[in-house]
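User: Second chain of the day. Same drill as before.
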Amino acid sequence: MRIKTIGFIGLGLIGGSIAKAIKQYHPDIRILAYMRSRDTLEQAVREGTVDQACQAAGAEFSACDLIYLCAPVATNARYLEALKDLLAPSCLLTDVGSTKTDIHEKVRALGLTGRFIGGHPMAGSEKTGYENAKPHLIENAYYMLTPGEDVPEETVKAFTAFTASLKAIPMVVDYRQHDFITACVSHLPHLIASSLVGLVRDLDSQEELMKQIAAGGFKDITRIASSSPEMWEQICLTNSANILKALEHYQGQLEELRQELLKKDAGGIHSFFAAARDYRNSIPDTSSGPLGKVYAFYCDMVDEAGGIATLATILASGGISLRNIGIIHNREFEEAVLRVEFYDEEACQKAAALLRKYRYTIYER
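Assistant: Same format as last time:
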């Protein structure tokens, strides 16, 4: 599989990040792209991510050896039909959608099963859009690949190797298996996070005391509720059967816990938390998952003028860039009042070591 030209339809967070990674690791590959936002497309050209901005998903894509469909899930299927008669004989199609069954059914209906490999980088952010795209977003992230049934084995191997060259971790699975896995580890958690936010909203007092103190852990576990409603509407509609299966099992677990609380079953309650802790601690931390990893720690901060500025200056002197910094008013730790977030693990570890040299107390999760 020789790749000289790659096309992108859609250039949001995921598409933009993949395009940037390609330019970083394969600078000789030519990238052309189309998306509805002309301003964003022109920005990508100015930055050097895209070599050619296209007016439509049309004939210009016939020069491509590989095309990434990075529009919303339902929209990707429509672009397949538009591209079908324009493709070069050896052009491979892929997508980055969070659900795979719908697009594989469309591929089958169009007779494209020999040239389509579904893709889903298990990485992301609550932030959306090209402006938040980064070449390292998919680094060390599982990248699920779901080949059409007629794709030659050598093509699958070649595309798997290309995906690995972008520093992702490719994993080849059946598309039906993919959709059940993501329903459990990605889609249901988003539903739970959003429902928790709704719970606090609905049960809060007129003074909004819950909202006022809902920082720290609550904001951490509900961070993904800030994701795009349009995207999650499509995900829920295209993977509803698997999400319902996972949701029904989750409701059963909640009912068991409810009964244990009603009976004040200390042993059952303890077992619930112990089993969750043990399994959670057994999950490897060597790669990022579908919910996106946050690189942050908490540190003690003396309540005096210029305290945050001093800390920021120390980090800047060490060449460390901050992603976010904020005061935590409801102290989950005994004295930790400052949460510091970074763009990657290396910066987070370097910052923690540097601040400890200055006798800051750091709490890492």
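Residues 3 and 328 are 49 Å apart (CA to CA).

User: Great, on to the next one.
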